[in-house]
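Protein Record: Sequence and Backbone Structure Tokens
======================================================
Tokens: labelled as protein backbone structure tokens, with as many entries as the chain has residues.
Question of interest: how does this chain fold, as expressed in backbone structure tokens?

___
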Amino acid sequence: MASGWIAIVILAVLLAVFLVSIYNSLVQLRQRVKNAWSQVDVQLKRRYDLIPNLVNTVKGYAQHEKSTLESVTQARNMAMAAGNVKEQAEAENMLSGALRSMFAVAEAYPELKANTNFLQLQGELSDTESKIAFARQFYNDTVQKFNTKIEVFPNNLVAGLLGFQMADYFTLQGEPETQQAVKVEF
């Protein structure tokens, strides 16, 4: 009779160790997702800091393009105020569109395109965009690992009981377009 109780206690301890192991791995992945998002956030803040300088440089040359410059500033403010990953993605889509419009305006001003300050800011922004893309990819990879860990059995049982929820991916509008073949014409 005592050996039966010992077997039950051993099974209970093994089950507890198993559950704690699942819980700890979920917590570690959740923290990695938070860390990955903070890396994206750092790059986005760098982008937001560059935009006012870029707008001011363009403003000096293209004063009658006030609506374009205001839309960039408004989109930047909305992106800075975004509360979660989904809102951030939507705001970043608006900001990217506004920046494209501003660079299109800049094409009409040869003096602006030759301005070293503008070229330097444009280069820094381009570098920042690359860093954002890398940080976003790392974040999405980490989210994929976390979400997979939550969904697989028996982790899904533990995750559901302990309130772990799937994380949102940081996707930008227009990504499927980048998967299309590039058209080259001569």
In short: The chain has one domain: 2-176. The CA atoms of residues 86 and 170 lie 7 Å apart.
